[in-house]
Structures are given as C-alpha cells and as structure tokens.
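Internal QA ticket QA-208
Title: Verify multi-chain structure generation after dependency bump
Assignee: T.L.

Test input:
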Amino acid sequence: MKKIIKYVIIDILRNRIMLAYTLFLFLIGSSIFSLEDNSAKGLMSLLNIVLIIVPLVSLLFSAIYVYNSAEFLELLVSQPLRRRTIWLSLFIGLAGSMAVSFFAGIGIPILLFEPSATGFMMLGAGLFLSVIFVAIAMLAAVITRDKAKGIGVSILLWLYFSVIFDGLVLFILFQFADYPLEKPMIGMTALNPIDLSRVLVLLKMDVSVMMGYTGAIFKDFFGTRTGLIISFLVLVVWIIIPAWLSLRRFNRKDL
Amino acid sequence: MIIASNVSKRFGKLKVLDDVSVTCGKGECIALIGPNGCGKTTLIKCVLGMVIPNSGFITFNGKNITHDWQYRSRIGYMPQIGRYPDNMSIGQVLGMMKDIRGRGEKKLDEELISRFGLNDMLNKRMRTLSGGTRQKVSASLAFLFDPDVLILDEPTAGLDPVSSEILKEKIIAEKAKGKLVLITSHILSELDDLVTQVVFMQDGKICFHKNLDALREETGEEKLSKAIARVMLAK
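Actual output:
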C-alpha cells in the first residue's frame, strides 16, 4: 500500500497544478490578511474562498486525475495487488495532497495572522472539505465511464452543494414558514458538508448574532461540546460513505 | 492449472462470453483463436480478474480467483494494447513494477529488456513511444518476474520481424521450462511451431478445444491455418 501511495503522490507532484493551487491559496490567504487591518474581518472574507474554491478544485482535480490514471489503474489491477489497496492508495494520495496544499496555502496564513478558535475551526473545516470532495469526486468518476460525463457530474455536484442546496433550503423555509422549522434546520445542515462547515465557522465568529432566532437555536446546538462532536462525526461520515461506496463499485468494475 | 467453469459475461445487452468452460494444464501452449469480437480478450481479462464474470467461476491451481489476488503474482500478462501512465519513462515503469512486484528470492528475467534494446531508451517517456516499442515494454514486463503462467494477447501485433522472432524464441524457451502459455493471435502461420493445443471461439462460445496433432490428423492438413479453415468450412 505504501508503495502505491508513493507512486500516486510522485505523480501528483509531477503535475504542476497542485503546486499552482497551493501558491494561489497562499497568495489569497496572505493578501487578504494583509489588506484588512482587522484579521477577524479577513477570516470572514477567507471563509467564502474556503467554502467555494476548495470544494471545486478538490472535486475537479480528483475527478480528472482518476480518469487520467485509467492506464495506471489498469496496469495495477492486472498485478498481484488487491483492488482495495489500489483504490484506497489512490484516495489517500489524492486526499493527502489536497489536504497538504490547503494546509500550506491557507493554514499557514491563518496560523500566522489569526491563531484563534475561529481560525482553527476554519482550518479544520477546510481540511475536511478537501478530503470530503476527493471522496465524492472518486465516487462520481468510478460510476461514470465517460470522462466528459464524469467531469460534468462533478461540476453539477459542486453546484448542488454550494448553490442549489441553499435554494432548496430557502424554498422549504418559505413554504413551511408557518411551522417551527428551527430544529429541523439543524438536521438539514447535516445533509450538506459545505453548509455544515459554514455554520460551524460562523458560529465561532461574532456575526452569529445577526442570524436571529435560528442563529440562537444553532448556537444552542453547535455551541455545545456534544453539538461540535456530532458535527465532526457527520463530516467524517461524509468522507467514509462516498469512499466506501466508490470502493465497492471499483471492486466490481470491469477494466 | 487454470479451469474456467461456465463463465458468462454480458456488457449491457451484448453477451460476450456464453457459458465458457475450458481447462488449461501445465506445460501446454494454448492458442486462443477466433474472429474479432468473439470474446478472447474478455476471457483473458476474466482469468486476470480485470473483468468480473456475471456467472460461473475460474480456479487457479484449485483456488477460486474471485476473492484472491495473490495468484496474479504467478501470471505474466501482456495486453493487446499496452496502456501505461503517459508521463512516466520506460525506466520508471520498469522500476515501479519491480518495486511493486519484485520479491527478493526470485531472480528477475531481464533477457527481453536487453534483447529488445530497451536499456538504451530508459529515459523515453511512454507517451512518445511507438506502438511497437510499447509492445516490447509489455512483453518485457510479462516475462520479467519469471511467472508460471504467461498470458499473451496478440503478442506479435505491431512488432517488427526481428523482435517478433526474439519473442517467439523466448516463448518456446519458456514453454520448454514447463510453463503454461496462453496466446491469442490472428496470424495463424506463426502459431504453427509454438502451440500444442487450439481453442477456437466464436460468438462468445468455445467451438472446440483440441490438441494440435489431433486437429492435424482429423483434417489431414499440416498447416494450422488450413486446418482451421477446413474445420470452419465443414460446419
């Protein structure tokens, strides 16, 4: 397993995109903090980058990478290796490099400028999102054989998680405005890792007072230790389920 | 050594393998022949575990291969179209395979690498290679780990006459060591001095599986190509 992870990581490093992504994140991260005199405000601007760019790059890069390593996978499958080892090595290689890129690009500026609870929460959320979207991309790529279709599905998934899901939530809120929806809303956020991360980070900031009654309910739940542990468990589940489904699919795939 | 029992595989509506049963013993050199799209490559990929049959099973040395993977360390596979990571060089591909598969105790068989002259172009990227050179890399990899079973899918397609002779000599030498060799090819004339048994497939079914000598006797033809033609006409 270690050997294959090594080859996956060497291959990703040889591909300059990863380096460019890290540099891009680092430039944004450090320039936002240098522009704002109040680093808490900087964190607020950075939040949007983390919630939009990180899932998108994670998803697209992983999907394209899986398609491009079709030959590599084919070569390995005919060798005395377990399919599970091959697939998990690919996952660990991709997730590891996405997480390291994020840590180097955004994590270091956060640690330098804003090493607060909010900063750490954002760092954790970003790392989770990087890995979650690698898992989702690998699931999309293993299900669709056609490259263009697979990448299209990945883009749609990203749109769903970052835009459409919020629209659906708003729609439900307006339709059922007469009912108390605050508690079900907590459950709804668990269905979207991006929303969950946003809520987790926002609640650490002072802006949560502006969210009104729902914000108070959220604070009641996510502010507690149990709430926090449950949310991180949900994020872990968001990694495990797509990864497990894709592994099951890959085990039976014809190459 | 390899026994396939009632293996069926469909890709969507297309039935590629239809109840295929075949037994391959040690020391044989078996030619798998048949028209394009008759399921030869799919059968080979089933044996390697790259394609998973819908029904039926395959055993390797008496063990079902479905949940096994170690048996592949005893197979050398040369694919029809060798596909390798584009941005790796020949040397890196060879090195990676040695790293992944190499075990201390067995000696590596690098005869083909040197005879094909691959040592002089270890730095060439896989993307820049011609089809023939790719085939040479595939062949070298198949023989590299001195496996008990060799599965060669169209081994000489795309090779120049000199290299194709080198490969044939190597196959004969390995066969003499008592290895099982499975070959698919469309060039029947070059199988004449290699094979001991013939498996003829059509539309996903095995039409016959015979000893070459028995086939020659039955048809009265010395050449494999003519013998096959005669069998096909007789149907």
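Spot checks passed. The mean pLDDT of chain B is 88.
Status: verified.
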